[in-house]
Predict the 3D structure of the following.
Amino acid sequence: MKKLLVLLFVFVPAIMFGQRNKGTQPDTEAERKAANAEKLAHVFTPQTEVNFEYCEIIKKPKYATRKIAIQIDFGQQLNLLENTDLKDENGNSVEFYSMIEALNYMGTFGWEFVQAYVVVDGESSDVHYILKRRKINAPVAK
């Protein structure tokens, strides 16, 4: 009986785990590169139309008040002296009491929250918010 148990505990796992499933793992570096290229081919296929646009908003404190302004980056090239604060139709900076109020404001224009991350510079830190929205006349996925 002991011999049978030894056989079961030694040979069964060796048989189960010792077999290599041929055909699923590439053997050479060239085969691995070809397999990876095939898997990633659809990722780098250019799209004819971009369906979303993105922006980044950053909180800018207003001094001597509890209000904040937000700075918006749409990926445009900016002059170092250019003011990127969010402006209303009269050209005045739009002010908020919190970032949640700013996110809700952006939501009224179709922007959706994607992600937030913190940028630390010395002793100060800024939270950056990434937003996206569907472009006008962009096809809806089915």
The helical segments are 2-18, 29-40, 99-107. The longest helix spans residues 2-18. Strands lie at 52-61, 68-73, 95-96, 112-121, 124-134.
